[in-house]
Amino acid sequence: MSEKGSNQPENKYSTEDYLVTQRRNSTKNEFNDGQVMGKATSNRWHNLISTNAAIAIGGRLHGHKCDIYVNAMCVRIKTNRFCYPDVIIVNGEPTFADPHQDILLNPTIIAEIFSGKTNTTDKNEKLESYLAMDSIRECLLIKEDEMRVEHYAKQNPKQWIYRIYNERDDVISLEAVNCKVSLQEIYAQLKFKNAEVSSKAAT
């Protein structure tokens, strides 16, 4: 999940201006109701977690028509809000805003990685927007500075099951894509309190 980036509070941009600028530049910026927000640079732990999660889940999706995007796919979560989730899974055919195929409209599962430095307001507002999307079935909030994953699983548009996983032997069931992933896999190669997390696959 983006850390608090370089906002531009003095200028309001239209959605069209944001998209034109974004497609011209290599820098990834998020957008919320006229405000362009810089996406913070990811550190080693952030990158390891996103890669670990994508590899662990992707390795179990054989036979499923799923796309997995890591760190670089823009999602329109509201008419006037665009962001770059850390890991995105689309179960089925992806839908895009236009022929550029760079603005995704129908994520099935989103995983965001955050730390104690993450802007809490941004995190909460983004989570609320994710949970309001019709296509999203599950959402993972993964901490990079401690072993903790918050899992939201949709039951119906007004009801979600919320679970916390914080033990290395915990296994998360992603029902939307019929697979399981362990915290050992997500946190492989990361150390917490001088203890390295070894990689152990979910069964």
Q: Your description of this structure?
A:
The protein is α+β, with helices and mostly antiparallel strands. It has a single domain (43-196), classed as tt1808, chain A. 21% of the residues lie in helices and 33% in strands. It contains four helices and 15 strands. It has helices at 15-24, 44-58, 120-132, 183-186, and strands at residues 29-32, 35-38, 66-70, 74-78, 81-83, 87-91, 103-104, 109-114, 138-143, 149-156, 159-165, 171-174, 179-182, 191-192, 195-196. The strands form four sheets. Strands 3-6-8-9-10-11 form a six-stranded mixed β-sheet, with helices on both faces. A hairpin with a 2-residue loop joins strand 10 (149-156) and strand 11. The longest helix has 15 residues, at 44-58.
